[in-house]
Amino acid sequence: MNISFANALGLHEQALGLRARRAELLANNLANADTPNYQARDLDFSEALKRQVSGGGSATELTARITHHLHIPTGGQQVGDAHLKFRVPMQAAIDGNSVDADAEQARYAENSLRFQSSFTLLNNQFKGLLAAIRGE
């Protein structure tokens, strides 16, 4: 009997990847909190997860089509900017920076908690599969 990991693991595998990508974005925002004219970016998690589940491709990958025989195949390019959204600041900074460090830290902490819960659920799924394989 074959085990389909996609069916057994559910959305948690995809959610972990998206949560990791969002953590990178939020950390980048925090690192650039003092950079003039830096615009804070974020990933709409629910929209990106819907896109991945519906088969619309990865939320962080942009693929190019080869339309001419002299084009170089890319195999996908890790850009992610196509689906990122800029954050609108509550109060504009004089230097044009839109990062609110306190709000970004709160978002980062929330994202970390959600990452950990998805990881725990995924880990429990693996434990259940291992118990089923062992016949326990």
From TrEMBL:
Protein family: Belongs to the flagella basal body rod proteins family.
Flagellar basal body rod protein N-terminal domain ranges (all copies): 12-39
Pfam families: Flg_bb_rod (PF00460)
UniProt-listed GO biological process terms: bacterial-type flagellum-dependent swarming motility
Key words of the record: Bacterial flagellum, Cell projection, Cilium, Flagellum
Stated name of the protein: Flagellar basal body rod protein FlgB
Primary location class: other
Function: Structural component of flagellum, the bacterial motility apparatus. Part of the rod structure of flagellar basal body.
Quaternary structure (record): The basal body constitutes a major portion of the flagellar organelle and consists of a number of rings mounted on a central rod.
